Amino acid sequence: MRKLLISLSVLILLCLNCINPVILFSTAYAQQKPIPPYAKWGALAMKMTKEKYPNARIIDYLHIGRISGPNSSTEKFKLWLKDNSKEFGVFVNIEFNNETEKVIKVTFTETAK
């Protein structure tokens, strides 16, 4: 009986060493981030910037913020572009109707910084 218990104990220890205990007790869950309200305007800003600067590559993107008015609002973005060896920034402002979300005006302002 004693030999059986020792053999069983050794077998259990060997099995436990083969299994990583971290894997047994940890569970990873992917978290989905909510889509920000400016996402569609950011996509439009990138699309229109690619149309205006077809030879440049967008290498960075920043949502600056929204200016809300009674009838219209403006989403403000800064995109960083690279055209051959030249890098430059472009401020993109998209003004839209608050009720219909129809675009009223899009402006581009280049900047060296």
Automatic annotation (TrEMBL):
InterPro entries given in the database record: DUF3889
Family annotation (Pfam families): DUF3889 (PF13028)
UniProt-recorded name of the protein: DUF3889 domain-containing protein
